[in-house]
Design brief:
Helix content: 25-40%
Strand order of the largest sheet: 10-9-8-11-12
Shape: globular
Low-confidence stretches: 235-247
Distance between the termini: 103 Å
Structural class: alpha+beta
Radius of gyration: 32 Å
Amino acid sequence: MAEITIRKRPRTEAVVTQRKFFKKTARGKVIKVLRERYLRDDVACGIHSCGLCAHEADVLLPSSGSLHHASFGDGHFVLPDTNVFLSQMDLMESPLFSPPIILLQTVMEEVRHRSLPLYNRLKALVKSDDKKIWTFYNEYRSETAVIREEGESPNDRNDRGIRKATAWYNSHISLARPPVRGQARPPLPTVVLLTDDVANRQKGEREGLTCMSVRRYVEGLPESSQLLDLLAAAGSDNVEPTQAVAARQALYPDYLPTATLLAGIKSGQLHQGHFNANAYNYLEGSVSVPAFEKPVLLIGREHMNRAVQGDIVAVEVFDEKDWKAPADEVVDQEATLKNDDADDSEEEGEDDEALAERRVLQTELAKQTTSTKQPTGRVVGIIKRNWRSYVCHIDSTSLTSTNPTSLSQQTVFATPVSRLLPRIRLRTRQAPALIGQKILVTIDRWERTSRYPEGHFVRALGKVQSKEAEQESLLLEFDVPYRPFGKAILDCLPPEGDKWVVPPKSATDPNWRDREDLRDLIICSIDPPGCQDIDDALHARRLPNGNIEAGVHIADVSHFVHPDTPMDHEAAARGTTVYLVDKRIDMLPALLGTNLCSLRPHVERLAFSVIWELSPEAEIVNVRFTKSVIASKSAFTYEEAQIRKDDPKLTDELTESIRLLNDLARKLKAGRMAAGALNLASPEVKIQLDSSESSDPIDVEQKELRETNSLVEEFMLLANISVARQIRETFPQTAVLRRHLPPPKTNFEKLQDILKKRRGMTLDVSSSGALAASLDVCVDPNEPAFNTLVRIMATRCMLSAEYFCSGSVARDTFGHYGLASPIYTHFTSPIRRYADVLAHRQLAAAIGYTPLHASLHSKSHVERVLEVVNKRHRMAQMASRASVEFYVGLALKARSEKETVIEDAFVIRTFRNGLGVFVSRLGIEGLVTFKREIQFDADNYVITIPSGGQDVSIAVFDKVKVMIEVEQDKNTQRGRVVMSLSHPIDSRGM
């Protein structure tokens, strides 16, 4: 029998191996946490051919490191500290930056605590095939583990640990390559500590380490001219400022300390909310806060105080006597600041641009009426920045030299594509080469002495107006993940690939376990033309008792996408499939989305079925949920299904099934409308492309909605409502649901006022039913499109629908206002929506098919996932709309080259110097502006234009004709849609 010896560890060793820290519980109690860490001496260094370490990893650092640096001819490795990854991630991700990197466990953990998005980027960087990165677990190696000393801050402890690891690596390399007797010692590579922390650098140098700032290190690389542009402004030491910093005058107030902000918000003296810039007036913004029905208005740069679109800010609200009304004039940043200089934009004193902005604000205030005043205030601090990379172009007028061979550093303006963002100052050596290019720029800082934020160049996307660059810039602008699926994700797919089929029916086959065989049912799908990811199919048949069986069959995606796998994590991160005009950015790999999960005709597929027994009046008798195997009999487009339904000669089972479904759908819709559901509208157009191979647009037309569109919609709604009830009943705390909150009545005030004054119509917003009824009577017998226009404007007054976790909100807020349903979820599109995948998993557990994964029992986990999904859903919608607008612009440009483009439009907004118009046939909005003085009646939404002795009045809801041109923008070289009136007056030259 083996002898067991029990050894007692000495107290001195316990001090090193134990980690002690304090944390506060949810109830506010402070507890001490003691964690044991087991130190070892076999944590590998990761360097190839190291005789002291045993390596089993595939990816190792080259034995000599990198030889491509002016200061390290014998080779070197780079060991960055935490702040390098926090502030210089764009540099680390650049393919031009390729030294072997030692990534410490201490650094990884600190990045995770400081910024989750950057931590995710760092994890992706470690897995990248074109980077040589070794993660060294220094906290578990006995020679590199450190403990926090008395009075030492956590940051100082981490810095000391990083320096100790650097020293260990240098001595380890020396020990691993001992000198051979009689031979000169071979040169050894150096481990370079990369840090922008001056104090840390000085301590490292005193300890005999080789330390460098990021800028100094990059200057020694062969590609330094390009890499220097990637450096974040905040991390740039030894950079000559544009003007003497000491002499600068503060342009913005200081932010209040964080503790003061949080205390002010808690006491109600300050208010927290998201900053929203005004697309029509760059000198105005707003912040919606719970304490006021209307958003808090921010007027002027000083009161917006360096807030950027989407930032979470703290605002101070002025006394009511100082409240103002929003501006009723279009104020364009480019026109007002056309002579601003990038180098001089932070100079001392009041310059021409500041005076011009002041004049605009004073003019606006002088013309305001008292009737529309709203809470007004100023930003006093930033709770959370929303800065990211933005798509921009270089303002050619800001260049001091246009010599394409010049490598001198210039300070230039980068103008973001989005009108909601300020211009960004950046220093670059590539400015002349970047003119006419779409580029990616990241904001680094915004000092109170600078009118504009400072940023750095990330990369060029391509020539403006090239479809490839425009498409990529659109995806980046709306933060759409579009990288190809990685190997770990593709490894989750069935190994048979596209040869996978539903196996023959067998009691022992796991694919058939607890599945109903519905292959004999007359099932079909109805989708838009060209649809490849067919999520849903339907059937209906009469029962012997006189009732009707109707079924919705949804692709069983959760059979292939298992929880907590790389494919599941990627789908959760993407959140949704994004549909652009000429391409689709899939949430799941194409093998699943367009093949194995797609319910294609005449192919057996796994499904999740919801089957109802309905009375002839479409009342639910009962409902059941089951996993199933189906074989769709046909895949129709909406048009084909409509033609088949309407053809009296066709009496086959499939046609009768469609007629039966349509009859039920009409009754279901009537029931929803009677309950108060809204029939809203949004401008939807279809881009006609030249051919399937070419993506050149040739025309734009409005989408035609048929009865079969409504047929599919009604049954999808019914399935979603039925599933929502089931998963809420089974999992009351973590059910994945979707809600649409009632909009604040103040959202409709403007529309109500316009309708009353311009058309004598009343809009009742007391409930969804009252709103639906009053929208039905907003009709102009001479203009059929008028009702659609009012519905579009009413839709814009609504709040957005959102996913939520059932245990996170009050039960009385579950309802879906637009659908007039007390409960709702998304279940019917799991190929393209991650929320539906979660609902599938919960429904499968609810019917006892499979146990629910632990993550879906966690309320906090569900909340985190749905927060990402909500954001991705919003961004996908905006990206789709922007794609349509871009292609509409291309189609208009091609059309305007052949003829003058004149279209009917409705006036939807009046300004002191222009009109907002909506062109329904093209689904686009535009501005008609006047340089000449016009009369403006803000109370009655009317402008009056003097014309040859006879005044012409135009008001909101008036129908006008507009001339549409696509101009080449002088700065961006990009096509821009410009509108002018052609009737009732020609506004060109006005």
